[in-house]
Design a protein that fits this description.
This protein has 388 residues and is an alpha+beta fold. The model is unreliable at 1-5 (pLDDT under 50). It is built from ten helices and six strands, in the order αααααββββββααααα. It has helices at residues 19-57, 62-98, 101-107, 112-136, 138-152, 261-266, 277-287, 293-324, 332-359, 364-387; strands at 163-174, 180-193, 197-205, 211-223, 228-240, 245-256.
Length: 388
Amino acid sequence: MKIVTQYNPLRWLTFGVSIMDRYLVAELLAPFLFGVSLFSSIGVAIGSLELIRKITDAGLPLSTAMKVFLLKMPYFIAFALPASMLLATLITYIRLSSDSELIALRSCGVSIYRLILPAIVMSLVVTGITFAFNEFVVPAANYEASVILDSALNADRKDFQENNIIYPEFGEVDQPNGEKKEILKRLFYAEEFNGELMKNLTIVDRSKTGVNQIVVSESARWNIAENTWDFFNGTIYVISADSSYRNILRFEHHQLQLSRAPLDFARKGRKADDMNIVQVQEQLKLIQPSNDYKEIRKLKVRLQQKIALPFACLVFGLVGAVLGTKPQRTSKATGFGISVLIIFAYYLLRTIGDALGLSGFLTAWMAAWLPNLFGLGTGIWLLFRISR
């Protein structure tokens, strides 16, 4: 391998990247692509077991199973990308170390930091690709797969909740003594929903100081043009603060300036895995007034995990490159074995963090980023030790 660079009039075509960097990146590409194929195949094989069971037990048509299978592929590829980055860096740098190429480079004055720089840059590129892939491909494919599967199993999947829609809304309300206190402002209940019209509604409104209001209505729909609710065939009971009767209003059609949130809440239909970051944030914003702490905590953890997972590529790239540069004479099989152990440890930490985050022992951010922080700390510590 030629280390000393000479003047090359066509160098601008390579954006100034040195021969050493191009050589290292070229060495990294082959095991990386191999890793994507290998880990995706393992994920698909494990994930297909449930699909095969549905083909045999529920009589799922083979053509439908194939569609679901193809739509599930992006999900497994997304998880394979970080693992492939680890495998690529480990195998490449172990091979270079075993063939004494790293010794030759270091004897020419190339530092350990400079040696792993191409791996770090490539890890950052893969991080960006994984983030985009997770954001724009995986959620849509997952959702489509769920719709097809549910439809084929005669379990029609609705994009909305059909029965017993309960939406509590909490907020600060002025008290008689002038203070503000967070209480249940409004409770919205609808017995049925067909996607457009809600039926048999009861709304308890406590948002006004000194008076409560109960609305009972046969049906209601959201008025898009006027941004309000149209209630039909109902009664409004107005009750004073001392629980005495104040007024009763019967109506055939009455408009109430209520939030659109109950409609959006009823129309939720996707799991966190079927949503991208923007959709999760919208869902989180929607349910936060309900004070459903369990669901809010779950969505916060899933949101942070969607951001944290792509950065596992960077962590794995650093750890793999640093471990691979240790002076050693080991085979590619050893590199693969170390990769499996590190990947297992990472996803074990991810599972533990997930459980601690959902149970409230850790914040959502810490729960999602715990494996990345641990891996990053380990990689930096190893790097300092090897560079001495």
